[in-house]
C-alpha cells in the first residue's frame, strides 16, 4: 500500500538475516531482496569463467552482461542468473569462500547498488546484506543490525550442513566465517558496519521467531506512527 516502508537488515555471516528477513517480509506482504545472492550469482559466473578475482574491470564487464533475477515462487525464493536457476549452486563452499573478493571492488558494488536501489524504489521491501542501512537504502524507515558470537554462527552453519547430509568441520567453518567478516568489514567501499540509527539485536541466544517478532514490533510501531 501507500504506507509501505523499507526494512534494512544488515550483519555478519550467519547472524540470521535471510531466515528472519523472509519471515518478516512474508508477515508484512512485502518483497524480500537478498543482496548477498546477487553477489553470489556474479561470483559463480566469475569462477566458471576463471576470471582472476582481482580483475575488477573484467568482473564489472561481466556483470554488465549478466542478468540476475530474484524470483518469488510460493514460499521459496529462486535466484536466476542468465535465466539459469542457480539457487543452490550459489551456496557452494567455493562460491562462499570467494564472494567477498568479488564484492570488495568499488565498480562492482556501484552497479550492484544501482540494481538494488531500483528494486527498493517502490518500498514494501525487506532487504538484507552488509551495507543496506548505511549505503543502499540510507533512508530505510527501519534498520536492523543482527549479530551473534562467531561460535554460534559457525554452529548454525554446521547444523545446516549436517541437515543437508554434507560433511562439516566446525573449526573450519568458524575460520571461513571470520575470514569473510574480516574482508567485508575492512574493505574501502561500503564495509560491513552498523548504521548509527540501526537497532542492534544480538541473536546468540534468541530463536528465529524471537528475532522476527522483535523486528515486526519495530516495524508496526513505525507504521502506526505514520498513521496506517
Ligand atoms: O548469508 P551469508 O552471510 O553467508 O552471506 P550473503 O548475505 O549471502 O553474502 C555473501 C557475501 O556477499 C558477503 O560475505 C559479502 O562479501 C557480500 N555482500 C556484500 O558485500 N554486500 C551486501 N549487501 C551483501 C553481500
Ligand atoms: O543470512 P545470514 O547469513 O545472516 O543467516 P541465515 O542463513 O538466515 O541463518 C543461518 C542459520 O542460523 C540458519 O540455519 C538459521 O535457521 C539459523 N538461525 C538460528 O538458529 N537462530 C536464529 N535466531 C537465526 C538463525
Write the layout of secondary structure elements.
Elements: E1 6-10, H1 17-28, E2 31-34, H2 35-48, H3 56-64, E3 68-73, E4 76-81, E5 84-85, H4 93-96, H5 99-103, H6 106-120, E6 125-129, H7 132-136, E7 142-147, H8 150-164, H9 170-186, E8 199-202, H10 208-225
Parallel strand pairs: 1-6, 1-7, 2-6, 7-8
Antiparallel strand pairs: 3-4, 4-5
Helix pairs in contact: 1-10, 3-6, 8-9
Bound molecules: cytidine-5'-diphosphate (2 copies).
Any overview of this molecule?
With 228 residues, the protein is an alpha/beta fold. The chain contains ten helices and eight strands. It has helices at residues 17-28, 35-48, 56-64, 93-96, 99-103, 106-120, 132-136, 150-164, 170-186, 208-225; strands at 6-10, 31-34, 68-73, 76-81, 84-85, 125-129, 142-147, 199-202. The protein has a five-stranded parallel β-sheet, with helices on both faces. Strand 3 and strand 4 form a beta hairpin. Helix 8 crosses helix 9. The mean pLDDT is 96. The structure holds cytidine-5'-diphosphate (2 copies). The site of one cytidine-5'-diphosphate has 15 residues, from helix 1, helix 8 and helix 10.
